[in-house]
Amino acid sequence: MRKRIISVFVLAFACSLALTACGAGGEAMKEKRGKASVNAGEKEQRSKRASYRDRSSVQEKPTRHKFKFRDVYGQTYETYTDPSIPANEYDDRSFVHNGSFLSYKDEGHSSRMGVDVSGHQGSIDWKKVKEAGIDFAIIRIAYRGYGHTGSLNEDSLARKNIKDAEAAGLDVGVYVFSQAINEKEAAEEADYAISILGGRDLDLPVCYDPEHILLKDHSKDPAARTSSVSREQFTRNASAFCDRIKKAGYKPMVYANMLWEAYSLDLSALTDIPVWYADYEKLPQTPYDFDFWQYSNEGVVPGISGACDMDIQIIAGQ
Q: Looking at residue 223, what is its pLDDT?
């Protein structure tokens, strides 16, 4: 009985406080509700993915979960998601393959088709590439050798490809094939790309491609200078490169496949940097957000001799 009396008393006291709060704070609650309704549209817009966006606006997965993926050789891996990294919220049903070409369309996004090339493709007829429906190109501008010396080299056709692709009406970005083993070398690679550009404007980012060199037996190439670089060091290298690119007035981006996202790069330390994701499966395996997807290395495009890498850019708000 005593417990019941105390319970009734506590309940009555709580109701009294609630009535007082309602009377004193009624106007404040109305104002708060008004602000909430006004901000609803803004919140919806902020939740949509935008190119080169404030990636903190993308919703994050609340908890870790286990998932499997496989690499280009068919080797299967199992790991856990990192809930601190912006999540992949694309609808797999909205990816449509049509031969070498891929499109994406949902309520808040559209897509553009692209290729990425290097001097290995030889001379390219960029007018034919444009006429085939390609909207952009990501062109290798430089590379570091993966042997002991690790010398920096300009791609033999970088300047010609950039000039001719732009003249044909394509948007252009560039990438550096990196073999940096520390921040100093990563910054050096960025500076080298910037010097080749010589102040030239770009429509798309300057991308850091921090390659691990792998053999088909899944062991690291003993000649690769990055074989012993830790995940933490790879991440610091990526940050050093991107910081340098930002300071030069260009947009940075990081290239990564699922193996690198799981084991070689800490994407939680790079959440403000767009990702160029590489995966040759039918659908992207990554649980993490990306702006560009390199979905094939066997594309056939008029104007380019032999196979080439195919890419899609997903754009918000269209």
A: 62
Identify whether the C-beta of residue 71 lies closer than 8 Å to the C-beta of residue 264.
no
pLDDT of res. 215: 52
Residue 274 CB partners (closer than 8 Å, separation 6+)? 51, 52, 53, 55, 205, 251, 252, 253, 254, 290, 291, 292
CA distances to 79, 88, 128, 317, 318 from 106, rounded to whole Å, are 29, 14, 29, 10, 9
The tokens for 268 are 């939680």
Would you state the pLDDT for residue 51? 46
Interatomic CA distance for residues 93 and 183, integer angstroms:
40
Q: Of 276, 308, 262, 311, which Cα lies nearest the Cα of 176? A: 276
The ranges of the chain with pLDDT < 50 are 1-53, 56, 60-61, 217-218
Tell me the whole-structure pTM to 2 decimals: 0.79
Q: What is the helix (H) or strand (E) element at residue 275, kind and residue range?
A: strand 275-278
Alpha-helix residue ranges (DSSP H) falling in the chain: 2-47, 126-131, 158-167, 183-197, 231-247, 258-259
